[in-house]
Amino acid sequence: MAKNELTGKTGNPASLDKSSKADIESFLDRAQQIQPSDGANGRLLFALDATMSRQRTWDRACTLQAGMFEEAGKVSGLDIQLIYFRGYSECRSSKWVSDAKRLRDLMTRIDCRGGHTQITKVLAHAIKETRRKKVQALVFVGDCMEEKADDLCMRAGELGLLGVPVFVFQEGHDADAEPTFREIARLTNGAYFRFDNAAAKHLGDLLRAIAVYAAGGRKALQNLRGESAQSAQQLLTQMKP
Fold this sequence. Notes:
Helices cover 44% and strands 16% of the residues. It is globular and about 45 Å long. The relative contact order is 0.20. By secondary structure, the protein is of the alpha/beta class.
């Protein structure tokens, strides 16, 4: 199970290249005004695979992930928790904070270490957290999967029953991982996307859309549909009514 303190030591993919600049800017302007409907902050879990398979692209990935954090931090009414795994059974989580910059700075100090994936622990942590206090969304960034697909799908099903969508961003094209990642997204009513340098700005826009969802719910995204914001539309297209 993940510890409480974070330290740096111890279908087809959705198209991301059709957003109009004006639509995105309008979407971002609206997103800044959205508050959680019940007056309490929404809660967003951001999970990272920091195993050695990501080492080759880690510096670039950290830049993209930091940009995603920055965009999420622009949405008010949101608390974020960072969780990562690497090495031999190392899986750690931060406290819940409303200052996304703090987590971004912590995330950039994490380095990759050899070890197997621990996605099951991430999903179990999300279940535990939402039973304590509702988690509105889980974002996972990873490239591969070395666990039993059925075990992961069982946990994903539990999250689906708890109403916690998982938004999976896959780096690379691991053919073994992709079907399971897509199934996790489907079982939780989340969404699946590619994570790559070519879509840097859109990744930030997508995470901001997810943050809007976490802070204000599906209705917040639906309200943005009239603005034709591609990021919000991509989420709504993959998420079931």
